[in-house]
Design goal:
Layout: H1 14-19, H2 24-52, H3 66-70, H4 79-90, E1 96-102, H5 104-107, H6 112-122, E2 133-137, H7 140-149, E3 153-155, H8 172-190, E4 194-198, E5 202-204, E6 218-224, E7 235-243, H9 247-258, H10 268-275, H11 279-284, E8 288-290, E9 296-298, E10 311-313, H12 320-338, H13 342-346
Parallel strand pairs: 1-2, 1-4, 2-3, 6-8, 9-10
Antiparallel strand pairs: 4-7, 5-10, 6-7
Pfam families: Nucleotid_trans
Region (Disordered): 1-23
Domain Nucleotide-diphospho-sugar transferase: 129-327
Length: 365
């Protein structure tokens, strides 16, 4: 789908018209026509800009959480400055941060977020990456728990929407949360930060950076990988991505977010798998590569070799209890692998015992 041009149509300045010797009555008619055209075009321009753009420093609809705002002292920094501060503290030298999102359902002790952080501590060369992780809390309870377990937390409140409860796949609450997340990621790019986004139900077993492609704008994990990193037939999974901040990626996230209006009732992942074929992606020059499930696997398509796996995602799984059950078994399998002597690790005698309670249906994340 071609996007409307961002530059407004401009009429010739009156001085230029006079230099061509136009009579006064012609100028008046031209001026009236331009005024009428502006009145007609303005509503469409406003609608388009409202869908895909926010001015720097605007609220983005992410007002302070009520209980969070009540706890702040008068004169506290704006949410935008708080975000800027936490991104700066957590960023790597090249302005890269690791991001995950959290609501109360996933934040309770022993739940998903504890397993997520534990995987960093148990992984190979992943523990040091925790200092670059920012946890984005969708609700006050999640934020309260975050600050107890991690130094870099950001409260992303959304007025009139309660994201604290478990959001079942493709329910209205789930869809709203996914699109809020995507809108937030666009803001991070606009602030000049590259990011690795990871769902909290992804376990990190090895440092993923050696397996990222150099000089690529947008890299994303897959539910199903067809053995070619550039093949658009790969079925992407929005739960894990590595994105570099530049004009192309920012424009792409604007296009992706605005495309929700073309595909009502679909979440960001399904919309991406539709718009990845759009000629506009080529027009803006965005480079896309898909990450192999050999290194970035999940329950949909597991990373079979524990000597190679970087991350494993509890996708193709419905229900929080099922996720937690299988994630715990996954962590047990990983620790069993780590306890093996090197010669037995090379024999690849270890294997995942998951999924168990989680479904392998392709229709589920």
């Amino acid at each position: 789908m071609a996007r409307p041009a961002r530059k407004a149509l401009m009429g010739a300045p009156p001085s230029a018209a006079r230099s061509r010797g136009l009579p006064r009555h012609a100028l008046r008619r031209s001026g009236a026509a331009l005024f009428l055209a502006t009145l007609v075009a303005l509503p469409f321009a406003v609608l388009y800009r409202a869908a895909v753009w926010r001015s720097p420093g605007a609220s983005w609809g992410w007002d302070s959480l009520p209980s969070f705002a009540a706890s702040q002292e008068e004169g506290a920094d704006s949410e935008d400055l708080k975000l800027e501060r936490v991104l700066k503290k957590a960023s790597m030298r090249d302005n890269t941060v690791i991001l995950t999102t959290l609501n109360a359902a996933w934040a309770s002790p022993g739940s998903v977020i504890d397993l997520f952080i534990d995987s960093f501590r148990s992984g190979v060369r992943t523990n040091l990456l925790l200092k670059h992780l920012v946890i984005v809390a969708f609700d006050w309870k999640a934020y309260e728990q975050c600050v107890k377990i991690h130094p870099y937390c950001f409260a992303l409140g959304t007025e009139g929407v309660d994201f604290s409860e478990e959001k079942r796949f493709l329910t209205l609450g789930y869809l709203e949360m996914m699109w809020r997340r995507l809108d937030f990621l666009r803001l991070v790019l606009e602030k000049g930060y590259n990011f690795i986004f990871s769902d909290a139900d992804i376990m990190w077993f090895r440092n993923p950076f050696p397996h990222f492609y150099p000089d690529v704008d947008f890299q994303i994990a897959c539910d199903h990988y067809v053995r070619n990193a550039t093949d658009l037939r790969n079925i992407a999974n929005g739960g894990f991505s590595y994105v570099k901040s530049n004009e192309r990626s920012i424009e792409f996230y604007s296009f992706w977010y605005s495309s929700r209006l073309r595909y009502p009732g679909y979440h960001d992942q399904d919309v991406f798998n539709a718009i990845k074929h759009d000629p506009y992606i080529v027009d803006i020059g965005l480079t896309i590569k898909f990450l192999s499930t050999k290194y970035f696997g999940g329950f949909c398509e597991p990373s079979r070799d524990l000597n190679e796996v970087c991350t494993m995602h509890a996708n193709c799984c419905i229900g929080l209890r099922s996720k937690i059950h299988d994630l715990r078994i996954m962590m047990e399998d990983w620790r069993s692998y780590l306890s093996l002597p090197p010669n037995l690790k090379r024999l690849q005698i270890s294997a995942w015992r998951v999924p168990q309670n989680c479904s392998l249906s392709w229709s589920h994340r």
